Amino acid sequence: MHNSRSVQLVEENSILNNVLQRRLRLLGESGPESLLCGGKKGIEKESLRVTPDGNIAQTPHPMALGSALTHPFITTDYSEALLELITPPLTSTRKVRECLSHIHQFVYANLSDEMLWATSMPCLIAGESSIPIAYYGTSNVGKMKHVYRRGLAYRYGRSMQAIAGVHFNYSLPQDFWPLFKQLEKDDRELQDFISDSYFGLIRNFQRLGWLIPYLFGASPAVCKSFFMDGPDWLQEFDPHTYFNPYATSLRMSDIGYKNKAQDSLKISYNNLEQYVCGLTRAIETPLSEYEEIGVVVDGEYRQLNPNILQIENEYYSFVRPKQVAKSGEKPTLALKRRGVQYVEVRALDVDLFDPVGINENQIRFMEVFLIFCLLKESPPISADEQREINQNQQTVACCGRTPSLKLAKDGSSINLLQWAREIHAEMMPIAELLDLAETERAYSRAVEAELPAIEDSELTPSARVLRGMRDNKQTFFHFAMEMCEQHCRQYQQSKMPPERAAFFRKEAEESKKRQCEIERDDNISFEQYLQQYFAQS
C-alpha cells in the first residue's frame, strides 16, 4: 500500500537533505504503513537510595529486592546505594514507562524509611567513604564486578560514580531491515548491513546529540559536597550550591563521568571493525599512572588490570553499539561475532519533575530522533569533526542556554537556535510516519511539544530547576529533597496491581536462588577466572 500522506510530507519539507528525503520517500512508497513502528525500547534508570535526611544510604542492597547480581530488572550500578531499575525491551511506549513505574512501586514497598534521590547529581556526600561500592556476592563474576568498581574508585574517585542517569535502549523492528537493505541496493550480508547502519546512527547522534541535553538536561546545579574544590567555571548559587546560570547538564560536563586518559584513544565509530579494534587496544594497553596503583596489593585486588580501560564499560560515550553478551563473554567479542543488536543512549538526565525519571513524550521524542539519525546521511567522522563534536557536547552541557550561543559545524559556526530548528523540522516527517500506526498523533505531538523549548530556553528542565530554586529560595539540596519527598508520597499512596507485585516478589526470590547456584558452581580461583576472561579472542 502506497503511503501518499508521508510522501506529501517529505515533499513539503524543503530542509531535508537529499539522502534523508530519498529514504523517507522510498519508505513511504514501500509500505506497509507500520514499517518503522514497533521498534523495541528499554529504559535503565539509576537512583541513589538516601536516608530521610538526604544522606546516601549505608545499608546493603535490600534483600527483598532480590540479588543485584542476577535480578533482570533491579540491580545496582557503581554503589551499593545506587539502584539501577531496568525494563525489558518493549514495543509500546506506554507499556515501557508503565513497567518502569511498577518497578519503582515494588522498590518503594521494600525500602523501609529510605527514598530514591530525584536528581542526577548526588547530595549529600560526606566524603568518599560515604559512597559504598556495590557488592555482588562471592562468585567469581560477582567479585569481578566489585573489583572493577574498586578500580574506578582508585582511578577517578567515588563521587563522580554516584551520578545517576537514564539510559535509553533502542532497536529498529526486525522487519524493517530487509526492506531497508533492498531500498539501499546493498548486497552485503544482512547483519553487516544492520551493524553499519547502526554505526551511521551513532555517528549522527554524536554530531546532533547535543540537542538531547539542551532539551532534557536537568542538572544545572550541584551540591558543594560533591567537590573538594569547585571548577573555576562554576559560580556560587548560595553557600551550599554551585551552578552555571546557562548550564543544561552538569552530569554531561567535565565534572561528570569522564576519563582523561581516553582522550588519546580516538576510538572510531566509522565501522564495527575499527570500533572493536580501538576498544580492544585500550583494554590491552597498560598506563603507567594505573600501574602505580597496583593490581593486587597486600593480597587484595585494587583493579582488574592496569590498562587504559579495565573493561569495555569504562569507556565513556554519549551512545554505544550493543549486542547481548552470553555468560562470561566480552562485549567486544559479542559485537564482533554477532554484530550490533541495538544502541544504548546515555545522554539523558533523570527528570526530577517526573516520579519515574522519564515521561512518555521524552521516550517518543528519543525514538523519532534515533530514526532520524539512522536515515540522515552519515559520512565518516574526521579528526577535525570529532573535535567539533566534543566541543559542542561540552558547550551545551556547560552553558547551552546562553543567548545567541554558537556551535561548531563543518569548520565554521552556527547559531544553536537555527540548528535546533533545522533538526526539529527534519524530524517531523518521521514522527508522521510513526503516527500511521497511532490514533492520537502521539509521536508528532511529542516532537511538536519540544519546539517551544527550542524557541525559549527558559522552558527547558534545567531552567525550570534554577527558577524553582530561586523562587523558593532553596539550595539545590533542599529543592531536590522536596522532589524526593513528593515522589515518595506518590509511590506510597499508589497501589500496584496484585499480579505485578507477585511477579516481582517471585523474580526477587528466583534471583537469589540463581546467585546461590552461580556461587556453588564456581570451580576455579578468581585469578584463573580473570585470566580466562581476558584471554578470550
Explain what this protein looks like in three dimensions.
With 537 residues, the protein is an alpha+beta fold. The chain has a single domain (4-535), classed as 2-Layer Sandwich (Creatine Kinase, Chain A, domain 2). The protein is 45% helix and 11% strand. It is built from 19 helices and 14 strands. The chain has helices at residues 4-12, 18-30, 93-109, 140-156, 176-183, 190-208, 211-216, 272-284, 288-293, 331-338, 360-375, 383-399, 416-434, 442-448, 451-455, 461-471, 476-493, 498-521, 526-535, and strands spanning 40-50, 74-76, 82-86, 115-116, 166-171, 221-223, 235-238, 241-243, 296-297, 300-301, 319-322, 342-348, 406-409, 412-415. The strands form 4 sheets. Strands 1, 2, 3, 4, 5, 11 and 12 form a 7-stranded antiparallel sheet that branches. A 3-stranded antiparallel sheet has the order 6-8-7, with no helix packed on it. Helix 6 packs across helix 11 and helix 13 packs antiparallel against helix 14 (442-448). The chain is globular. Residues 1-15 have low confidence and may be disordered.
